[in-house]
Amino acid sequence: MSEIPNDLSYSKNHEWVRFEGDDIYLVGITDYAQSQLGDIVFVDLPEKDVDVHAGDEVLVVESVKTAADVYSPLSGEIVEVNEALSNEPAKVNSDPYGDGWMFRIKIKDKSELNDLLSHDAYVEEIDE
Fold first, then answer.
1. Domain total of the chain
2. How far apart are alpha carbons 35 and 43 in whole angstroms?
3. DSSP reduced 3-state for 27
4. CA separation (Å) from 63 to 20, 35, 105, 108, 116?
5. Is residue 88 classed as helix, strand or coil in its secondary structure?
6. HSE (CB half, 13 Å, CA atoms) of 127?
7. pLDDT tens digits for 26-41?
8. pLDDT, tens digit (0-9, with 9 covering 90-100), for 92-128
9. Is the residue at 3 inside a domain?
10. DSSP state letter for 108
11. Is residue 114 part of a domain?
12. Which of 3, 15, 25, 28 is the most exposed place for a label (fewest CB within 10 A)?
């Protein structure tokens, strides 16, 4: 079974979101997503200081099996990207909820948080 922390929100596209304060949220892909991809060999990070909308493709993760798009779960401005993934993309596999985070976003519309899944709803989503 994949690790699914209780203190995060999730998208149906398998991104996780963690509130950090001042409308800033940390975003990455779930343990379930990284396990489905296999060994990640490259992360094409988004540009910093770019506005995105919820559902926009913001980066690509490449693994030994395939390439997968990662979408922004919220609308806002990307204020930081995890540059460490450029040299160590495998951090997404080894620590998807820690060092494997992908970007920080300053959100514009808090109502979009209602569109994210709770821990229990995400568990149901991946069990289907």
1. 1
2. 15
3. strand
4. 29, 10, 24, 32, 26
5. coil
6. 8
7. 999 999 999 999 999 9
8. 999 999 999 999 999 999 999 999 999 999 999 998 7
9. no
10. S
11. no
12. 3
